Please model this.
Amino acid sequence: MTSLSIRKMNELSKKKKKGFTLVELIIVIAIIAILAAIAIPKFGQITRNANMKADIATAKNLHGIAAQLVAEGGDVTDANIDSSIAAKLDGSPAALPNTKLDNSVAFQVRYTPGTGDIVVTAGGGDEIYPTPSGDYAS
Model:
């Protein structure tokens, strides 16, 4: 009987073990969960920063178009400056585009004839260009 059990033990030890143990799998899953818990909030912040930078770039373009209209001597009163700028954008949309940070809020451009200041805001609130404020301030 002992020789039989010794022979079985030798056969079992000769077989190659395939796969992972349950403990190894649990450890790998725990490591993946920890990495995901760290990465997901960072991804959200990266997306928010990218949207803010896209809005600032769009605001700079709108500011440049408004400066071009002023230099050309066009009628750039607050009543029609947004539509004049929209007409110069690619595709000539009916109105200025919405911001990436809050898709329900459109850009607005304000021109002060006495000082020549051109300010691009988001929905009349946060100043985006030339001096960012609110959500766009860093």
Observations:
- Strands lie at 107-112, 117-122, 126-129.
- Residues 20-136 form one domain.
